[in-house]
Amino acid sequence: MARSGPVIVFRTEGDTQVGLGHVVRSLALARRLSPPARCVFIMGTRDDPVLDKVTAAGHEVACLRPGATPEEAAEAIARQTPQAAVIDLPGRADDRALRRAAPLLVVIDDLGLAERDADLVINGTLVQQFRDYPRGGETQFLLGPTYIILGDEFARCGAQPRGFPRVARTAVVSMGGADQRGLTPRVLEALGTVEAIERCLVVVGPMCGDAGAVRRAADASRLACRVVTDPPHMAPLLYGADLAVTCGGMTLYEAAAVGTPAIALPQVEPQMTEIEEFAQRGAALPVAGDLEPDLIALAAAARGLAANLTQRKEMSRCARALVDGRGAQRVAVAILDLLAAPVR
Question: Which of 95, 148, 307, 312 is exposed most, by the fewest CB atoms within 10 A?
Answer without folding.
Answer: 307
